[in-house]
Amino acid sequence: MHADPHAKGEPDRLYKNATELLKRKNAVRRLARAEGRPLTEDEQLLTLITPAAVRVFKELTDLARNCAGKVFPTWEWIETHTGLSRASVGRGLSILSKMGLLDKQRRCVPIDPPADRPKARNAQTSNVYRMSFPNRLARFLPRFLRPIPLPDDVVQREVDRIEEIEAMRLWRSPRQVVAEEIVDVDLRRILDSLAMAIENQESQKNGQPLLDSYYISCEKSWPGRPTP
User: Are residues 53 and 89 in the same domain?
Assistant: First the structure.
């Protein structure tokens, strides 16, 4: 996960959606009781939300809006700005993660290994947070807040585009794969040498060079055609 900036207005939209879920929580429970049925999996997910979790979410979305999407506060910062205890902050973050509203990744810095941990090379300073809103919860929002479905032709074009990209990737040579997908320079140099050896080995298996094969195919298709 990367701490990429959210689109303009996205943090506010995410927070507004979270507050709407909190408003709907008890109504969903009442409806399930009235119908004499257990909560569905999505309804169970919705009912996890708490005022404390929404309070934590507000501070994180405010950071995303004011700091160009770079959200990596310490727990102490969240405690101070929400007025919640450390335990409440921990529960709030856990709830948001379970609901799919929040992803996190550890943020570490290099350190000199302390005496009690001689193998330690990094120490965690905070987490990087990324907010989102899962599609499975969208149906609990008021209609005016639900995302507008894409037209069928737009969806199909995207599917076709992905399939074309995957088809092109299948035809890549080993060296192309290494060049496009390996970031580490030293590893890329090693793998490039291996890929070159594989390509040379494959070319030796083919008794007919590709260009000559093309001319033979043309001669069969158009008898009498002069060969170069």
Answer: yes
